[in-house]
Structures are given as structure tokens and as C-alpha cells.
Amino acid sequence: MTKSESELDPLWQNLDWAIGQMLIMGWDGTEVTPQIRNLIENHHLAAEQTASLVQELQTIAHQAGHPQPLLIAVDQENGGVNSLFDEDYICQFPSAMGIAATGSTELAYSVAKATATEVSAVGVNLILGPVLDVLTNARHQPLGVRATGDDPQEASQFCIAAINGFKDAGVATCGKHFPSYGNIDFLGSSLDMPIITQTLEELSLSALVPFRNAISAGRLDAMFVGGCGIQSAGMNVMHACLSDQVVDDLLRNELGFKGVAISECLEMQSLIQEYGVKGGTVMAVEAGNDLVLLCRAHDVQLEAISGLKLGVENGIISKDRIYTSLKRVLRLKSVCTSWQKALNPPGLSLLSKIHPTHLALSRKAYDQSIAVVRDKDNLLPLSQSLLQEEELLLLTPLVKPLPASAATKNILEKGNKAISMHERWIHQERGAIMSGEGVFRELGRSIARIRNGKLLHTSYTANGLRPVHENLINRASAIIIVTADANRNMYQTGFTKHVAMMCHMLRGTGQKKSLIVVAVSSPYDFAMDKSIGTYVCTFDFTETAMASLVRALYGEIVPQGSMPGTMRKSKKVSKTRQQWLVENYDRERDASALDELLKTLARSSTPSLPYITAGANSFELFNTHVEEAHFVVRNSSTKTLYGFVATYYMKGVGAIGALFVDPAKRNVSIGRSLHRRAMRSLLQRPGIKTVQLGLTFPGVFPGVPVDESGSNKSWFDNVGWDTQFPKRLTNMVIEDLGAWTAPEGLLQSIQRASLSFDLIHGLDNAESVLNHVATHAGPEVVELYRFALHETNTSGVVRAKNSMDNLLGTVIICTAGSRLSTYIPSLHSASGEDVGGIIAPIVPSTSQSRLILQGLVFMGVRQNKAHKSAKSVLSWVLDEAYEPLSAMGFDIQQTFDEITNSPENWSDLS
């Protein structure tokens, strides 16, 4: 028996059971069919779609002897893509791009948590989301508002906030669609595979950034691998989800993903035509997928099962390969479900209880997402620009109702065929706008009610401007045209421009013809067309979105939303010199608000940044050798902090030790205002010789966090720093200290070099150590050592000496109880486990420095193990010195660039 098999429940020795766990199936309808019962009882499968039948599915699985419950997965992306909809229990929330339009990662977190709480109540344990794609070709992509936008860093922030929301509600997460659906081209017919034409280097700088950041954040349970092709230099792949270059090499080896890989649905026509379902299923598993998705057809699903069995019989797929995937799937189940939870979902009682709160959150989110991109002639609100006796015309396109909507519910109740979520949104026809005149009927009624006056409402189609439209335009004083993905439905563009031209001509004759264009899906329809003077975006056309639109049009709310990504930034360029009031940090007034700001940043950042374990007290040293001054930008009415900067001065060195801004308030000059005030404060210090970004003590930010895109560093470039020659500082970690062993031969090498090590506590015999540190490091590192030596019970310094008793190097070590963890967040565990610290190794460059460093760190690890620490954190390793420490078993945790400049760079501020 293999090791893989022996670690598992004996039941999984039956290969049929193991294979069954590698397939994830869906079906049409809301009742248990004989086919799905057969799959669960006889083929031991997980289910893909769910509603109120989930408990019955889990009962069937339990009675069939499944050791763990089924994975129950849904597409619940919000906006237009929701598998679950019930007006009485399940709330509508904005699309991913709609949430991004609010500018609030806090709201993204709250909405995600609410969504996951609702689906969890009916037994769902896996959400197929969030969408991690970047719209690198935003105006022509079928994903549209399902993605956050075209800025990879902004997408990362919002997606990580969503992942945290899902996970905190107890639901597993699945990022999609790797490596990206945000940059695909359809080079042939709609049946052909969409193609990525970017190189891997281009993908790495844009499309892969949110995937990489989400993986680094550590809370992504699964990854959905797309069905697109890749045609570029270095990679020629017909189907990403069938390629080991994409799954095993790129996703697992390069990006370090250790969770469950799920393939795109193998019922795609292009895939069936080329490989067949049996061959495709085997290829998907060979490529590295752990779960193979088959959406609907029972005969196809059975074919996939037989294909996998045949693959094992033919020796194409090994038993070990099956058990590798099985263990990943079982690990995923263990974190998101149990029989107690699966057989006893809280159901409608919980949904009824939370519904009022979630409705209020939904309304808040939609209200904040509505974006007025332009209102050149001040037509909004209509209550001020349109008299009650004047006529208002609403022109709407014919669109298919959203699957999760009252309109679709009405269709289904009348006996019409269900709309398949997967077909509607993943394999949708290129022309997605079809019949469905009733979709905007309620919008018209709502406008009529709120204005308490006449409203004219009719639809328009690909037949263009008809006499009926001309007659109504002549009657009306104001016209609202609704567009829905006009870039993919060009008749809408032509119709809107025709009406705009007609209104322009009629205004020339002295008639009042106000024109408002509302994009209810992609905001890019007329984003760049300045001939449309008043342009509003809602980011989806759910009933709740349309209700918020009406409130915005009539001034009941002031629209706060903005265009996503780079368009938001380009719009705010004119505001980059806005000055904010900067105040001195007041501990009594601001500490709790600073803690809240840090929590907000933690929710929208990867754990590789220290926000999650930092607090307001992490920035105040109360050290007689250090002068410190901290500043805030705050809302004096709500007491909310928008940004914070910490500055320190000692022995001629002035440093910015932290500078951060609420993600919802970025790109409006708060950071610039804080930076200007911080630099003015530092430059006024008498005797200042050097200014630097980053500080070792306190060590919340030893430097500028290194990010893939270089955006952090470029920001500091733009405010005057020369960032060309940084000092690289790396934090490293041994995650499982109990399993760590010393590298072979290390002790012998230390002995041959006649190196000795001792551990000292207290300041009595520390003069040589402090002199050594002062000679080879900055004054803040001296204060760090002085602080550690004061803590005689929890910290100490290891000294390295040669046979002549000369001091060759030093390092601080500390136990979990050390107060150093207040100032060095990487020493603090959010999960409560004991962390041992090995801090600030100071080893001058000599022929022996590599071995001395390894020896010091080895002594630190031994001390950490002796104190029963769960893991060892090593801070901060200079430049390339991390390489010999990687060989000792340390992994890179965080990387920073400490930047040092001359005060003359800011002579205009002093």
C-alpha cells in the first residue's frame, strides 16, 4: 500500500470512491433527479448547483456511506451572476465592478460576508468566486462587470477583501478564471476556443497579479482553471485547463498554489470535438486538476467517470496521482463542512433573521456604486432640471432578464425552460441582448412614481430609430437612454448616437431636449465619448440597482461611485494637488480609529504585509533616544482616520516608519499631504544628515513593501525620492519549527572554522555588542538591541566569536512573550501560536560572513525550539544574504526596500 493510501480512511482504498471525489457535477432543475441520485449513491460525486434541495443531497450522501459531506458549490458573484435568488430571503448585491465603483474594500468585505452567510444557510459550502480576472482589454471582454476592472492592484485589494468575507462566514473560496478571461480574443466562431495572445511576461505584470496576491494571502481554497487557449512566444496551449504547463508549472510551481484546482466545464463544444469527454477528463487530471467540472448532461458525466477509470487501467493516471487530488479535496472539505453542519443547515430561520440587515447593506452598496461619470449641463437631479408638466421619455433595449431576478422567476413560474447559469454567463452567445421587454418595465414605473408626472417608455432594437421614437423624442423635454453592453451590441451605440445628434439639432431650434445616457452593465459603453454630456453607470440591472438609479436621478441620494481602475485614476489626475488638513496624532483621540484603519487595510491586503498584527501601539516607542512625531488625516465629524504617517529622528537620521491611506480614499492626495507634512517635520530637525524610508525599530515597515508591479516604489519616485539604490530587507520564516532539522554538515563547518557562540542578557556586559551594532548599522538598530537587552526574561543577544575572542557578529533572539512583538508585527501570530524571533543579524562582510550568519541563525532556531515555539521568524536579512538561509529551510515571508536620500532633495520644503 502506498503512503498516500495509508494516510487516508480505509474506504478510499476503493478506487471508485476516490475517483468519484474528483468530479464535480451539476444538473438542471431544483429537485433531486434519478440521475443525480445515481451519481451520489453509485459514483460518490460532489454536486455543483444548489437551492433548498441541498439537505436532501447531503442525506443521500450520508446514507450512501460518504465519510465526508458533499461539496455544494454555486456561482454567487452578485450583480447578474447569482445561482440563488429569492426575493424573501436572498439579497441582491452589486457586481464585482459595482463594488469596486464604491471605492470601499470595507464594503467589499461586508457584502462578501453577507453573501456567503446567505448561501451557507441553505447548505452551500463553496462559492465559485471571486473573479480574479483583470480586464486588460476592458472594452471588448465578455466578462464585463463580473471583474473588478483593469487595474491589477485594485483588483487584488477588492478580491482579497471578498475572499476574507467569504472565509469569515465559513464558506470555501475558489478564484477564477486562471490564468485570465480578462484578455481573451475570439479569433474564430463563437464555438472556437477564446485565445490569450499575451506573453507570460505580459501576463505576469498584469493579469496574474491578483491571482498571485490572492494565493499569497493564504485564504484561497481552490482555483478555477479556464478553458481558454494561449498562443504566445514560449507557450502554445489549446486548452488551459488541460495543460500541465498552466496547472502544474504556472499555477502550482511558479505561483505556489497548494489548494484544489478545478477545471473549466468539459462539456465545451470545442473541447468535445477535439478530444471527447473521456480523453478530456484524463488530460485534465494529468494536467494537475483535482476536480473536473461537468455541468449538466448525465450521459456525459458517466462518460467522464469511465474515462478516469480507463485512464488508471491504461497506466496514464497513477493511483498516487488520484490520491494526491483526493487528499486536497478532503482537506478542502475539512475546512468548510462537517456532517453536523451539512445535515443541519440553519435554513430559512437564519435567512429571515438576517434579511432586514442584509437589505439595508444591499441598498447602501447599490446607492454608493451609482456613478455619474459626466454631467456637463447639470441635468441631475431631474427634480431640478425638469418641470413636472414636462414629458420624460425612457428608451430601453430588449435584454434577456438576469437569471436571478423577479422577471426570470415569473418566466419560470409560467413553465418556461430554466436558464442555465453556466451557459448564460460562461458560454454565452456573442450577442447576449435578446427578447425580454419586461426587464425595464419596473424602472419606468418607478420613475413615473417618483416624479409624479408623465413618463413615456418604449424599447429600441437593432432596427434603429423608428418613426415612433422620433414622435416621442419630439414630445419629450428630457430623454433617458439605457444601454446594456453597447460595445458588444453595436446597434445600441448607433441608436444612442443617432438620438444624441437629433437632440442636438432640436436644441439648435430652441427646443429643450435634455439627454441622459445610463449604462446598466459595462461602464465603458460611452465612457470616452464626450458628446454624451450626461453619462451615468449602474454596473448591473438588478431590481435593486434600478431602484438606486431612480433615487440618484431624482436627488434622493448623491451618487458617489466612480469608474473602475485606471479610468478612476485618470479622472482624479486633476485632483492630485488637492491639499488635506494634516493634524498631529493624538493617542487618546486617534488610537482606536488607527486600529480600525489597520483592520481595514488588513482586509484588503495580503498577509505578507503586517497590518493584521500591527496596532496603534506599534508606532510609539517612548524611547528617550528617539524623537517621534506622527500625523493623521481625519474626518473630524465622524472621527474616522483616512491616513497615517509615523516619523522618527535619532542621531542625524530622520525616517518615515509608516505611511498608509484607507484604500477607499486613495488617489485623492491624502498620501501626498501626509508625506509633505512628515518631510517638513523631519527637515526641521537640527543636525539632520540623512532621510530614509523604512525603519528597523519600530519595524512595522522596514522599508517600502516590494510589490510585483512596482507601484509602491513609483509612488515614492513621484513625491521626490530617489529609489534607484535601495537596501533590500527580507523577513523569513520556518513555518513548522517542530519538523525542522539542521542542514547536514553545518555544525561541522562551524567547528572547523573555530567559531563559538554565547547568549547574553541585560546591559551589564553589552558594551561590545552595542559598539559592534553602532559601527555596522544605523542608530535605530542600536536602540532595537538596547530594547532587547533590557528584556532579560524574554530576549537576549547571541554573539559569534573567533578563537581569539573577537566579536564577529550578533543577532537578537526572543520568545513569544517578548514586547518586541508589539513593534515587529511579524513576531506576532494572528492565530495565537507561539512565534520565536531571530532579529537583525549584524555580520560585517568577510570571507567567513556567510558561515557566521548561518551559525547565528542556527543558534537562534535552537533557542526558539527550546522554548517550544511553533515557528521561527527571521527579521531582517540584508540584500542577498537570504540565499544561505533559504538553504537552511527558511521561506521568504516579506520583502522591503529601505531607501536612503539626502535632505537636499526636499530643499523646497525645509
Automatic annotation (TrEMBL):
Keywords: Glycoprotein, Glycosidase, Hydrolase. One of its GO terms (biological process) is carbohydrate metabolic process. One of its GO terms (molecular function) is hydrolase activity, hydrolyzing O-glycosyl compounds. Residues 46-332 form the Glycoside hydrolase family 3 N-terminal domain. Pfam families: Glyco_hydro_3. InterPro entries: Acyl_CoA_acyltransferase, GH, Glyco_hydro_3_C_sf, Glyco_hydro_3_N, Glyco_hydro_3_N_sf, NagZ_Beta-hexosaminidase. It comes from the Eukaryota. Gene3D superfamilies: Glycoside hydrolase family 3 C-terminal domain, Glycoside hydrolase, family 3, N-terminal domain. PANTHER family: BETA-HEXOSAMINIDASE-RELATED, PUTATIVE (AFU_ORTHOLOGUE AFUA_8G04060)-RELATED. Belongs to the glycosyl hydrolase 3 family. This is Glycoside hydrolase family 3 N-terminal domain-containing protein. It comes from Daldinia eschscholtzii.
